[in-house]
Amino acid sequence: MEQRPLTLLNTRAEHQLAPLRTALEAEGWNCIDLPLIRLAALPADIPELKETDWLVFTSVNSVRFWKEAAAAGLMKAKIACVGSKTAAYAENQGYSVSLIPQEFRAEALADKLLAETEPGDRIIYPRSKKSRPFLKEQLLAEGRTVKDVVLYDTLPNDAAGIKLPEALQDVDIVIFMSPTAVDAFFTFVKAEDVPENVSYGCIGSVTAEALGKKTSREVLVPQTYTIEALIDTIKNRKVKR
């Protein structure tokens, strides 16, 4: 008897649903879009750009909100991005990216930046209100001057959250792309109320760590932090369904 296709829950923000959905459906899988988080712009104090040596992006959203907040600013700063997807988006927005770490995580980005900069170099770090302090702290500890600009907040999307319990009845794997999506998920449903057949998949060690604090279930995490690598990880595992 032929197995039915996997059904996966896409929890990304509304404006980011399409890339994951397209990739999952290309595998012949079913995708349920349920954006459990929403992004809200915050008032931002944009520093003097002409005096900046580096601009650091740690997500596609940081590029997006920076572009909106500082579109008129002129700058000659070099650009660093945490990963290939962020870099590709930044390039598409007209930025020339100078630095991408081999490992797509903040720890590797900090190491690479420290190797490419000198004490006293001025760095602007656009970020979410809920971003980890790690990157800024590491750079400051090594004598770099860091101005972090809080551009947006990530909040639970109540309109989607009320649909979650019913949606989970048809799901094999829930996909998370950020710790904030994990927090939102478990705001809307208790861990013990998630059907037993449901597994979790995510991108990034920080997201996996957030999941580990909420559940003891198996979490599928690729070594490379991309959608393509996550799909390969899912394909290489036999899911009971």
Provide structural commentary.
By secondary structure, the chain is an alpha/beta fold. The protein folds into two domains: 7-36 and 157-235, Rossmann fold; 40-154, Rossmann fold. Helix content is 34%, strand content 22%. The chain is built from ten helices and eleven strands. It has helices spanning 17-26, 60-69, 84-92, 106-116, 134-141, 158-161, 164-167, 179-188, 205-212, 227-235, and strands spanning 7-10, 30-33, 37-41, 54-57, 78-81, 97-99, 122-128, 145-156, 173-176, 199-202, 219-220. The chain has a six-stranded mixed sheet. A five-stranded parallel sheet has the order 2-1-9-10-11, sandwiched between helices. Strand 7 (122-128), helix 5 (134-141) and strand 8 (145-156) form a beta-alpha-beta unit. Helix 4 (106-116) packs parallel to helix 5 and helix 8 (179-188) runs parallel beside helix 9 (205-212). The longest helix has 11 residues, at 106-116. It is elongated, with a radius of gyration of 19 Å. It starts with 6 loop residues before the first strand and ends in a 6-residue tail after the last helix. The mean pLDDT is 92. It is an enzyme of class 4 (lyase). Residues 20-231 form the Tetrapyrrole biosynthesis uroporphyrinogen III synthase domain. It holds the Pfam family HEM4. Keywords: Lyase, Porphyrin biosynthesis.
